[in-house]
Design goal:
The complex is a heterodimer of chains A (234) and B (435). Chain A contains 7 helices and 1 strand, in the order E-H-H-H-H-H-H-H. Chain A has 234 residues and is mainly α. The longest helix of chain A is centred in the last third of the chain and has 28 residues. Chain B is globular, with a radius of gyration of 22 Å. The chains are: A mainly alpha (234), B alpha+beta (435).
């Protein structure tokens, strides 16, 4: 019988290393027995992940039927001169993109998911712009805002998915809000005056910076962090 | 002509613990545990299947599938063929899916000399499952031609099942005037690197019981108290290695069988947990001090009165009219969250010791040892369980975690105390060196 030189425990004759510390078994008097069956089977049985196809089908059917019914009503019965059903169809499409692909494609990367979500918002607003004959404001104002918001969400999601502390998360979220608000004013100014004169967004950004600075200091000073943890414990 | 009366479908309510276990069920977690008997002879799967077919009707509480009602889950007798004995696999205690495998919540496996029984915790606790297992092993040995009497805890499979075995004993004993809460503080979570989707690393240590008992006695403690203390010491050492600025308490969830304290013949769940804890922020504890803390904590808190107050509180929640009206999906979600806060957060790991597995003397020569495995934990950490048979105490660490540091320190401690330990594991080691 072989013993682990590190742990002092007796090992199974079939063990090539100690299961506790991985030290290899080197025993010239009793080499590892490869003939004996190991103490546990080596056949691995895979567990199939829960199938979410049924739920995805149910959601698709519900959203699809709402969209179809509204579309038919709009075309033949109710205010057929105006495409009001696009609001409902757009909302159904947006909800479908938000909910169904994550159910069907397990392990979808976060950036793809958030990117798709932002695209869904873009599609919904596009359908609204069709009803309001507003392709110009859609391309000039709404789409850049939605894409920037989406990009900020993707970046934030990627950073936060690596398990940050509450303080870091709050700091990053406030920073992202500040950035988004500034970009909104940039697009609005550009759309209205073809010029960027920062105004109201600077106030919001200043508030965000004023919140971020103490948070960063608290995050970096252990004594302060402890104090905050004590004062705000739940 | 008289119309034949339609047979009324029987159904059972879930007991208090079962409600929690079925609610916290999720894709990569299931409250499954496994008992195994390593026989002296190679297992005959056909005889084992015959034994299962003969034994299961005697245990209607295990022959069920779980159904979702509007307000609660409930059990219904499962008339599907089976359960069938299967060849064992390297990753045991797989999650239970209520709609798959014909709804069976109990499984049987064989490998070499080993017969294994896996049970979903909502059906029964360790004591109940061991009664089934003991009876099954007796029937299996009879199938092989051995004379085994219906004594020493072996139930007669030809007898009709008794109603008392199906009793929800929590309800019977929820009679305390005081309701004792459990709001415990957060403990060190003892997490490691998670393994890929459903991999359960199992490491078992085989220890001579007489020597273990002697060493435990040297500290003035029982075997359970001594092993709990060694486990706490190993987890404290792990936390210290991580170099945390502020160390959290290390606490164990130790399930206690309530049957010795509250007379009951139930085969369903009837357990509560105690929480021995060491707070390293108070200062460093020597090992004898840890044993002493654990010993006194267990003796102080395992009292009939205190446990009855906890049972009353748990059952009162279940009886609350307002809570009863909440639909099952919402209840399950709430229970899953409260399990994280109350059942997971205050504990570093679980250590369960169902004690000695006793069989009639006629069965003893046919069984080498017993083994127990707790299924995957909610978080990537190892759970510990032990069971003794004859003079062999088997201690298992099982979890979906890559590191083996806690079990390493645990078994090294036993070796340092002069206890012989033999270790076996399902971890795939490196290839053996060429001869």
């Amino acid at each position: 019988m072989s013993y682990c030189v590190n742990c002092g425990v007796e090992l199974d004759p079939t063990a090539s290393a100690c299961p506790l510390c991985q030290t290899p078994v080197v025993n010239p008097r009793q080499p590892v027995d490869t003939e004996l069956p190991p103490p546990f089977p080596s056949r691995r049985e895979e567990v199939q992940p829960v199938n979410k196809l049924e739920l995805a089908l149910l959601l698709s059917a519900m959203l699809g039927s709402v969209a179809v019914v509204c579309g038919v009503l709009n075309l033949f019965f109710l205010h057929s001169s105006r495409p009001w059903s696009l609001y409902v169809i757009g909302a159904a499409v947006m909800l479908w993109i938000w909910l169904v692909p994550p159910l069907l494609f397990r392990g979808m990367p976060l950036w793809v998911r958030l990117g798709l979500d932002a695209c869904a918002v873009g599609v919904y607003v596009y359908l609204i712009s069709i009803d309001l004959h507003g392709l110009r404001w859609y391309l000039g104002l709404a789409l850049p805002i939605i894409l920037t918001g989406g990009a900020i969400m993707v970046a934030l999601g990627l950073i936060l998915s690596r398990g940050r502390s509450i303080l870091t998360s709050v700091t990053l979220i406030i920073g992202a809000i500040g950035l988004f608000v500034m970009s909104v004013e940039l697009y609005v100014d550009h759309w209205l005056h073809q010029d960027y004169v920062p105004g109201w967004s600077l106030v919001v950004a200043a508030v965000c910076v004023a919140l971020i600075i103490p948070l960063v200091i608290v995050r970096r000073r252990p004594a302060l962090r402890d104090e905050v943890r004590r004062r705000f414990h739940m | 002509m008289a119309v034949p009366k339609k047979k009324k479908t029987e159904w059972y309510r879930l007991d208090n613990a079962a409600m929690m276990y079925s609610a916290i069920q999720k894709e990569n977690y299931s409250a499954i545990y496994r008992f195994s008997a390593v026989m002296t002879e190679l297992v005959d799967p056909a005889a084992l299947q015959r034994a299962i077919d003969r034994t299961m009707p005697r245990f209607p509480g295990f022959r069920v599938h779980i159904k979702r009602g509007f307000f609660w889950y409930y059990f219904e007798p499962n008339d599907a063929p089976g359960p069938f004995v299967k060849e064992d696999m390297s990753n045991p205690c797989q999650p239970v899916r209520f709609r798959e495998d014909d709804g069976w919540l109990i499984r049987f496996f064989y490998y070499g000399h080993r017969i294994s029984l896996e049970v979903f915790h909502a059906l029964a606790d360790g004591a109940g499952a061991l009664t089934l297992f003991r009876t099954l092993l007796a029937v299996y040995l009879r199938e092989l031609g051995h004379q085994i009497p219906n004594t020493g805890g072996v139930l007669d499979v030809d007898e009709p099942p008794s109603r008392e075995e199906q009793e929800d004993s929590y309800f019977r004993y929820a009679k305390s005037r005081v309701r004792r809460g459990m709001g415990e503080s957060k403990a060190y979570q003892n997490n490691g690197t998670p393994e890929p989707f459903y991999t359960l690393n199992v490491t078992m240590g085989l220890v001579p019981l007489d020597k273990l008992r002697e060493v435990a006695k040297g500290y003035g403690a029982s075997v359970t108290e001594y092993l709990s203390a060694v486990l706490i010491e190993s987890i404290l050492a792990k936390q210290r290695r991580e170099g945390r600025r502020r160390e959290l308490p290390v606490a164990l969830a130790v399930p206690i069988n309530l049957r010795p304290h509250f007379p009951s013949r139930t085969l369903r769940n009837f357990i509560l947990t105690v929480r021995p804890v060491i707070d390293p922020e108070l200062g460093d504890y020597t090992f004898p001090e840890i044993v002493s803390q654990v010993h006194h904590h267990m003796r102080l808190h395992i009292s009939r009165q205190e446990m009855q107050a906890v049972i009353t509180r748990n059952v009162m929640l279940q009886k609350n009219k307002l809570l009863q009206l909440v639909p099952a999906p919402v209840k399950n979600l709430t229970m899953a969250i409260s399990y994280k806060l109350v059942g997971c957060r205050p504990y570093s790991t679980t250590y369960t010791n169902p004690g000695a597995f006793k069989v009639p003397p006629e069965m003893e020569p046919h069984i080498q040892r017993m083994e127990v495995i707790l299924g995957q934990s909610y978080t990537p950490r190892s759970n510990c369980a032990s069971i003794s048979y004859g003079n062999t105490m088997e201690i298992t660490f099982a979890g979906t975690v890559k590191e083996s540091d806690v079990e390493r320190d645990f078994f090294r401690h036993l070796v340092r105390e002069g206890i012989h330990v033999k270790v076996i594991s399902n971890r795939q080691g490196p290839e053996p060196p060429a001869r």
